[in-house]
């Protein structure tokens, strides 16, 4: 069976120290990979140096998103009228991914804007993802799509894992896959193990956190032993991003890797 590889999400983990110091902190805690949504406030060369010094692999970044509270806070792929901003964001994401040796770019979907119908936003989303897939072809960077739960992100363009998988299939499943985040899946859909198995061959990246509070696995309502057993049994060989808010300190909370994920 495949050994599971966990990546520290540096937006969520090691927030006890400044962002710049989180690389060394993650390596010292035993991580060999990291992810974070937004590298764009930093020069690629600086990030590359920090990764190299700490001996870390950059696993995943997102396309640029708007600031919290703005209409594009969860991405702009579904927003009609912002096609050129969307395309510029994909270009920027690919540029950073290339500089960081990062194999996955999360093309963030977005929230259906007020006054725009869901069908219109979804059609724009599919057209934009198709453009991004074409653009990324041959770059060595694969794209991932994530369904985010509508309790935390009301109006998010993707309704379900099935819908995300259908979009990936429509635009090219060899280069576009799922970012399946068990936290979002539990909140919106449930039936984790069956849903994971149904889409396992489309999953390029996994993320974990436990509802209701989005803390470490083992702090909430998910039966992680069964979930991780299903992941192992599927032969999944990608990374598992730790995208949770530590309940009481990042390092103090890492015990779940030896208990529920053993
Ligand atoms: O919110 C999430 O679950 C994500 O993975 C987004 O990428 C955060 O930016
Ligand atoms: Mg996520």
Automatic annotation (TrEMBL):
Q: Does the keyword Membrane apply?
A: no
Q: Does the keyword tRNA processing apply?
A: no
Indicate the residues that form the catalytic site.
Answer: 146 (proton donor/acceptor), 243 (proton donor/acceptor)
Q: Name one GO biological process term.
A: glyoxylate metabolic process
Xylose isomerase-like TIM barrel domain location is 23-259
Q: Name one GO molecular function term.
A: hydroxypyruvate isomerase activity
Q: Which UniProt keywords apply?
A: Isomerase, Plasmid, Pyruvate
The record's similarity note reads: Belongs to the hyi family.
Q: What is this protein called?
A: Hydroxypyruvate isomerase
